[in-house]
Amino acid sequence: MTVAEPMTMLTDYALAGVTGWLAWLLFRGREGYRARALWALAFAALALAAALGGTWHGFSPAFAALAVFLVWKVTVLAVGIGSFGMLAGSAIATTTGSVRKSLIAISVVKLAIYSGWMVWHSEYIYVIADTGTALVLVAALHLWSSTHDRHHASHWILGGVGVSVLAAGVQASGFALHRHFNHNDLYHIIQIAAMMLFYVGARRLHDRS
Predict the structure, then answer these.
(1) pLDDT, tens digit, for every residue of 10-55?
(2) Helix axis angle, 65-94 relative to 34-59, nearest 10°?
(3) List of residues 6+ apart from 62 with CB closer than 8 A
(4) Backbone angles phi, psi at 178, to 5 degrees
(5) Can you tell me whether residue 181 is helix, strand or coil?
(6) Would the CA dihedral through 108, 114, 116, 118 be positive or negative?
């Protein structure tokens, strides 16, 4: 079987492997903390998305049309679960009371609308819009927390958001280091660094009481 985009496939698999390992570490340290559990869910979903994305980039030309369709659909739906976990987890870590309830409700409704929409649509712009919205809200929550509570976990998560924005910018620019190392490949490598920053922050999160 010919691999269509070998470097993109390999870097996606590398992102999946690192993110999956970090998800397991977060899951092991989640006891008593819903915020950490939700971030672990986010990492696991994003690891699945990266693994399926690598498979799509590498082998989709050889797949039957139905297989290509299903792999892509599960990929984009997994990304939605990832953004849900990040937002809901951050809401629990940084807010309480009615504000927390409202943010969790927003994250659930956002996931439901996104998932329903993506069942019938496939354009990547909707994935960017959903993830971008979640990152903006996560950044706002942790910026507030770092300012008012001086919570060190928030600094790491804000760093992860910043590197994710950098990665997205590189991907959108089409910049390539080499004809065999394109903008998607570079995005995956930069995003690995972002996931490491997110992990350091997420493992320090506590449910705010």
Answers:
(1) 999 999 999 999 999 999 977 779 999 999 999 999 999 999 999 9
(2) 160
(3) 1, 2, 4
(4) -160, 160
(5) strand
(6) negative
Beta carbons of 168 and 187 less than 8 angstroms apart: yes
Number of residues written out for the chain? 209
Residue type present at position 14: A
* Both structure tokens of 188: 């995956």
Residue with tokens 């998932």: 115
Q: How far apart are the first and last CA of the chain?
A: 54
Query: Which amino acid, one-letter code, is at 3?
Result: V
Burial 175-185 (b: 16+ CB within 10 A, else e): eeeeeeebbbb
Q: Could you give the count of Cα atoms lying within 13 Å of 96 in the half-sphere of its Cβ?
A: 4
Q: What is the pTM of this model?
A: 0.94
